Amino acid sequence: MRGNKFGKLFSFVTFGESHGEALGVVVDGVSAGLDFDLEDLQRELDRRAPGRVAGTTNRKEADRAEVLSGVFEGKTLGTPIAVIVRNTNQRSGDYDKLKTEYRPGHADETTQSKYGIRDHRGGGRSSGRETLSRVIAGYFAGLMIPKINISAYISKMGPFEASLDDLKNAKNIAPYNFPLTEKNEEIKKYLLKLKAEGESVGGRISIHVTGVPKGLGEPAFDKLKADFAKGLLSIGACVSFSFGLGEEMANLKGSEVSSKRENFGGIEGGISNGEDIFLTTTFKPTSTIGEKAKEGRHDPCILPRAVPVVEAMVKCILADHLLRQRAYGDGVIDE
Amino acid sequence: MRGNKFGKLFSFVTFGESHGEALGVVVDGVSAGLDFDLEDLQRELDRRAPGRVAGTTNRKEADRAEVLSGVFEGKTLGTPIAVIVRNTNQRSGDYDKLKTEYRPGHADETTQSKYGIRDHRGGGRSSGRETLSRVIAGYFAGLMIPKINISAYISKMGPFEASLDDLKNAKNIAPYNFPLTEKNEEIKKYLLKLKAEGESVGGRISIHVTGVPKGLGEPAFDKLKADFAKGLLSIGACVSFSFGLGEEMANLKGSEVSSKRENFGGIEGGISNGEDIFLTTTFKPTSTIGEKAKEGRHDPCILPRAVPVVEAMVKCILADHLLRQRAYGDGVIDE
Amino acid sequence: MRGNKFGKLFSFVTFGESHGEALGVVVDGVSAGLDFDLEDLQRELDRRAPGRVAGTTNRKEADRAEVLSGVFEGKTLGTPIAVIVRNTNQRSGDYDKLKTEYRPGHADETTQSKYGIRDHRGGGRSSGRETLSRVIAGYFAGLMIPKINISAYISKMGPFEASLDDLKNAKNIAPYNFPLTEKNEEIKKYLLKLKAEGESVGGRISIHVTGVPKGLGEPAFDKLKADFAKGLLSIGACVSFSFGLGEEMANLKGSEVSSKRENFGGIEGGISNGEDIFLTTTFKPTSTIGEKAKEGRHDPCILPRAVPVVEAMVKCILADHLLRQRAYGDGVIDE
Amino acid sequence: MRGNKFGKLFSFVTFGESHGEALGVVVDGVSAGLDFDLEDLQRELDRRAPGRVAGTTNRKEADRAEVLSGVFEGKTLGTPIAVIVRNTNQRSGDYDKLKTEYRPGHADETTQSKYGIRDHRGGGRSSGRETLSRVIAGYFAGLMIPKINISAYISKMGPFEASLDDLKNAKNIAPYNFPLTEKNEEIKKYLLKLKAEGESVGGRISIHVTGVPKGLGEPAFDKLKADFAKGLLSIGACVSFSFGLGEEMANLKGSEVSSKRENFGGIEGGISNGEDIFLTTTFKPTSTIGEKAKEGRHDPCILPRAVPVVEAMVKCILADHLLRQRAYGDGVIDE
Fold first, then answer.
1. What pLDDT, on a 0 to 100 scale, did the predictor assign at position C49?
2. Where along this sequence does the record place binding of NADP(+) (chains A, B, C, D) (predicted)?
3. Is residue B202 within 8 angstroms of chain A, CB to CB?
């Protein structure tokens, strides 16, 4: 009941402090009999790791996934799947000053108040490293919904903006996860400059989902839009969520909205209508700035690395809702 | 597990179709020994009812609350509190055409797909009347947190905009729940005009919360911002949520954000920091437009009536988190 | 989180004090499209009511079920089903002395300690009348599992004992729910005598279930036997649960047990094996004895009336597990 | 939702197949600031391990606990505590025959039906090794309730019987956890003889709890007796639960029961009354008998090793209920 579990029928529990022994996750609700490939899982993790994207942090985290349970002879068993990642490249000494200091915007002070004790090294449980547990869970959710395609991409970062059409025309948007890949050199320079200044920048991540069947979402409170909102806002640094036309709705009249079905963003009455789903999130700038940023090894912008985390949450939510929809059919259930 | 329950330690289950026998709620987790006043509850309900605000719908719903359990001699017992509201003024005949028609943007078609059956009269369970159950739950949550003050207000509706400062200068913002009350006549004309045109408009509702103690919110997944997002997005017609600077964060640098503590909107690391909390939601225009709107008795804008619903959800979430914070103290628990 | 909800995918929340306005239940997870018959529901309730069985209490409770939501044109909608029963025949005056007295074995004192307040009339929420909410929930669970047959019967009450074979040879075991119906006159005399003496007696209720498919039960903690144990022990006055050979297992060797498959009682490894299920529960004697019993209108033995409550709980547990089993299939879920 | 989680406010999730990489548990709800001692945890685990009790299995399992998260500088952080135990001494070859065979009374066949796939080695997830995860969780629950004392002991095993008085007179009841320690040599001979014959025996484990405050238990469904029943019946091989006089209640009249308060076993109306709590469970004989038993390395009686598992479950349930009781106080909660 301490907020460490996400989801109902497809659910996962995460654990681990960034400077403790290991981080990890126990995923529950994965169907039996699915093909499991450790290399695919590792590739998902690598998308998230720092140090691989020039211009972002220069920490190299060798995040190797170790699967402890729930798979056998290359297939899932239907039992809980525990995966851990050992903490190997954490320079705890960097954080010694923080034993008695609180970084603004981080959970340092609020965590100390809440628990009366905290692991001051690197943000403890509230560290960005916690997101690797989500990416692992997302990998398994993805095994359950192969017909659904989830594409998250940066739609705004500093001066750079991209649209859904840009995404549709793009091939491989790594490493920045920004659709206009011809801008990659510019982006690299921009990020390195921010870093040198001890500055940081936020932005927007948009998500396009195709292949979602009709009927997902559980009124009144577990509407699909509500569960998306919760899952995405639970990501560190996320400060807003919207779907369809989102905030633009405040400027329109009813007739203008109803004219195009896609203005509803794939969700009507809180339930998926079978059309493409469009979601948008806003992330605030990384809070470690100025002197501390220059000393440490932080991201001037976490958006590129947040993209796989965003996709993972969306996958988990869809897997959960599909299981819920499958549970409830019409009429008798003992045939 | 059908999404009919909200909350964990302070929770409630809602039920009722808009043209069924009654709507209602069972509220669980209300402390024992609180003073209960039926007239106060009724007043909260009245804030939400249609037909009381000129320019909005002319349906008059005599929503009388009947408390069936959980209170005794003017005090709460700590047992579940069931409250119902009979459906008395529903003109089912108005909806006969809808037995085989789906209104765009409503849950009609998605509900039919999902369940294979639906009560076509007035939106069934997905009707706006479902929100009265939330308002009732919010009343009881409010009894548990008298030191916390929650003020929701319309910050944008058509051409009308208001700020937090406007709210601070306002006395009583009923009936439109818009801070610049000198505009009330203009608003009335504007809404009546929309109605005559068969049009509708959306807008934004902002929320200002004071008196929240430090330490509320449960990382990693039940962060306070995540639970707010879910509770608010679960309201029909709500299409976005943000806190603090929200979407504006996408345009700022780290130094600009950290300069003012209130840019964090009262939440850091997903946990309340003891400062005022600022939230914003966007609502889309009412989906019944054109001919159907002129025939029926719909709202050209639901925002005034959504304000008490928004407050109710925020109250329920804060009561839930305060109970959770109280459960977990340090050290031994059997003293 | 106050223990007022039972079940996960098929779940229900109960409410109501025995001398409050009404008791009731909100049932969640009932499939859409099932045929609903109010008279059948009423018949189930009548099996439980006091005053209908000679020799048991002479209170007549006119328990009329009122369905408030979740059904339409004779079919379930898949939305929450709220049913209430008004308290009409409660003689609150009988309990005035109890405002400051605690009846031994009842929840009076423990409830006062726990909540600091209680409705002293008739046992408040802990009254036996709470069981009618369970019977209502059981009715709806039964609609979902028509192929499963659940028969509960008294296997011991005072000097009277019956076996499963006796049950198989019996036609209609009402009103005492004891298989050897030729003993009914004797039983009536026995109970009236106990009542006159201000005495009470307990006994055993056994349950025989047929038609349960293989595979129900969720290791490690929601094993079918564990959920049965919880549901049955939650009934007031129930003091033990066992399945298969139960306590007799303590006297046997492994070879003796394995020799007959039915010794496992239909459950192996906590999962149903497709065979008949055999459960047994013990109920303690009614706690109101002596003077208070003679003044009031209590049961010298609650077993006949507990039988439909026991069946209801077993039905709810099986419906819940069938939904859970249906949710989790193999492989992909978005076909 | 697959039954892998136990508890609400103090909860834990277990994982691991007996022949997979590791078993483990993630414990949630442990208060921050408690003293943690790895050696104490290891000692608890050792009580459960096979191979240490002459006459029981000769498998030696080197169960070393590795704590991965949730503790720092010898204290709990209030964050999830993950502990794993690597599987080191599992002779998978022993089980090759079982790829296509089902052992009666085990979960082999029911698991295959349920999931369509299973890890046939050693019982997979349903193995007795799963209980070490429970013992670990029980260790942490124990840190939270130091004033409560839980003593489980064998009250019947084959020809050996002991009473609560015998327990009170005993000093250290290891290794058999049977109070009449002067019988230890006899017991050893008895068990070795059973093993040689390929036989097995079940028995009863009783539990005596002191120091439980009044008021624990949440009517209507999470009564303390109901949660005890579920937690204990969830242990493999457990086939019955009772409290107070248990099944003996079927033979008594009301006056006989009310005469001694301890006949209620410390629970009235489903809520603890502050008196000592008495619980009893029955375990069936180990299912591997005959040839398979002689070849393998099984227990002729699991009762000695089940005693710490029983204590662990009772601790977890009490910690959970104490947290729930602490959450709900009277009146306002924002002081």
1. 78
2. 48
3. yes
